[in-house]
Amino acid sequence: GGEASAGRYCDLREERFACSCGTHSVSVVASLGRMEGTGDGIHVEEKQVQVRFTTKLSPDLRVVNTPFSVPSHLTRYGLSEVINALLGLEKPQPFDCLIDGELLRTSLEHFLILRKLSAETILSIEYIRAVAPPKQHDPLLHADWVSAVDSSHASFIFTGSYDNFIRAWTVDGSCNHTFEGHTDAITAISAIESNHDNGALILVSSSKDQTIRIWQFSTTDHSKSSKTVKPISRPVKILKGHGSSVQTIAVKPSRDEICSGSWDCSLKLWKASENLEMEEEPVASKKRRLDRIQVSAGNQETHVEAHATLEGHTQVVAAVAWPENGIIYSASWDHSIRSWDVETAVNITTLTCSKALHCLSIGHETSSLLATGGTDPVLRVWDPRIHVTVGPVLQLSSHKAWITACKWHQQSRYHIISASHDGSVKLWDIRSKVPLYTMEAHQDKVLCADWWSKNCIVSGGADCQLHVFSSLHVS
To answer: What is d(CA 389, CA 275) in angstroms, rounded to the nearest whole number?
Structure first.
């Protein structure tokens, strides 16, 4: 029932399986259900459990949907071997098993006991592809703590550090671009593809210097790393208005507004349609904005003020998320998760946690679940659709210290990562309370984490390293 490790399977000695699709019958032969006795050499028949395998995988990976008996001591590893034998695959594939929507993390016998089910019960087991174990790569070294990461672009990873710089890293692990302009530690980064089909990216960053800065980056110009010259970019826009460190940022799905959260306990909204695109405007339009936009002729930076402030939190706004155009979620050290109506700037709902919160993530587009982490080792999952919610619908405990970051997978409603001051990053499937994998590559606190290219995880920490874990194959 512990965490998964690669290549671990039950030893099913001498078993042979015969499958007859014509008669829809399956027979299990040989010593699958026997265990050796002791002393006098008597063999004792082991307990059997009736199971029926189902799956939503492709037809070539489906077994006959007929009940048959298997030993009750089997865990998911042994069941995976049974399924592989029934399928007759030349190259074995690892499968995981679901019973009543929950991942099996015990033996079948123990599952029956926990659920208080009769041994005569026919268990319907849905098998799915197992998530492959992560492959750890050499770390990408920084000069100071790695405090922010965005890996939403398939070809680049962007990191922010306590040395005030943002860096662009390529798939070969080379840093080929530096963004200089912040005067204090970077707290958050968000990469957005330009509305124009020109390979351009817009970077939005926040910092302890109380500003949000906007940068332009060409993916075509920098797709090949340079070992000699690393270009340096200056920000093209500076957003000022917070009275203290800016801790978090989120971009509206329509990409025309930015939300920021600060140590001044407020959220601010910024018109990104004016901020992100650098095309020329008519002179009249520019004049109408002169009352709140200042242009510095020396470095061609444009200073922009917020158009709305959302007030209600009483302590640091640690995380914001913008899943839909009309609604924003925020998490704070004041123990609350709040939702906001964007048009009216009004706090709609408030969920209360028992701990101060550090991070917030919204499930991918087909899910409305919220995940939060804070000043204890518990990753909490909330369902804001339940109007009488008084607490999280799920609590996942495995970390040994505060949780600093959490992030749902872009295309899976079940998979989420969490990072902690205990130096680990954990991959969870919320259908189990046991993490799928624990990655312990960091030598100090982990401060940030993100998904990259669907099947990779990146994380940065106080050890001044960015780690990359690949080959997970989440489905």
So the answer is: 38
Determine the Cα–Cα distance for residues 90 and 106; give it in Å rounded to an integer.
Answer: 28
DSSP string over 382-402: E-TT-TT--S-SEEEE--SS-
Q: Is pTM, for the whole model, over 0.90?
A: no
335, amino acid identity: H
SS3 of residue 113 by DSSP = helix
Closest CA to 459 of 133, 148, 134: 148
Alpha carbons within 13 angstroms on the beta-carbon side of residue 417 total 27
Cα(129)–Cα(76) distance, rounded to whole angstroms?
Answer: 12
Pairing assessment for the beta strands 336-341 and 327-332 based on DSSP bridges: antiparallel
* Gap between the Cα atoms of 302 and 304, Å rounded: 6
Rounded Cα–Cα distance for residues 365 and 346 (Å): 24
* Cα–Cα dist 109/72, whole Å: 5
Angle at 431 between CA 375 and CA 461, to 5 degrees: 35
| Residue 217 identity (one-letter amino acid) | F
* Residue-level pLDDT, tens digit, the chain, 475 residues: 444 433 333 333 333 333 333 333 344 433 344 433 444 454 556 799 999 999 999 999 999 989 989 999 999 999 999 999 999 988 999 999 999 999 999 999 999 999 999 989 999 999 999 999 999 999 999 999 999 999 999 999 999 999 999 999 999 999 999 999 999 999 999 999 876 666 788 999 999 999 999 999 988 765 554 444 567 788 889 999 999 999 999 999 999 999 999 999 999 999 975 445 544 333 334 434 433 444 443 445 688 899 999 999 999 999 999 999 999 999 999 999 999 999 999 999 999 999 999 999 999 766 789 999 999 999 999 998 887 767 999 999 999 999 999 999 989 999 999 999 999 999 999 999 999 999 999 999 999 999 998 899 999 999 999 999 999 988 7
Structural tokens at position 289: 């904005």
Quote the distance between the C-alpha of residue 346 and its chain's center. Answer: 29
HSE value, Cβ hemisphere, 13 Å, CA-based, for 424: 15
